[in-house]
Amino acid sequence: MTPSETKSQSADKKTSGSFWRHFGLGAGGAVENSLQNAPGGMVNPIYVVATEAVWGALEDGKRVEILRYSLGQLKKRHIGWLAYLLHHSLIADAHREEFGPTGPPGNLSFIEADGTLRPGHEAFNDY
Q: Is the residue at 89 inside a domain?
């Protein structure tokens, strides 16, 4: 057997903690550049998961654009994803401005303080 044939099965599954920041829709930003060499068509595929997917925005419409672009790029390359912040929180960047300061990422949450889905965020079901 060759060394590649004897590698452990646990080595076939990898995760990525990369946080791909959105630099512009369709502009070949960090998401596009980071995924150019994603695995595909391999005899022993490697499973990749982006664990902090989808940059934030205070405006719901802008966030949905980012969501569609980012998750579209991941799906195109067969890369799984996990939301970084699913639910509203008082921690930085997990809430709307009326709940306190926010930083450059804006609001990263998918679910509002009242438990409803942020407007337009049902789009994640497409991915």
A: yes
